[in-house]
Amino acid sequence: QVQLVESGGGSAQAGGSLSVSCAASGRTAERYVMGWFRQGPGKEREFVAAINWSGGGTYYADSVKGRFAISRDRAKNTVLLQMTSLKPEDTALYYCAAQNAAGSSWDYWGQGTQVTVSS
Question: Of 54, 81, 90, 106, which one has the fewest beta carbons inside 10 Å?
Answer without folding.
Answer: 54
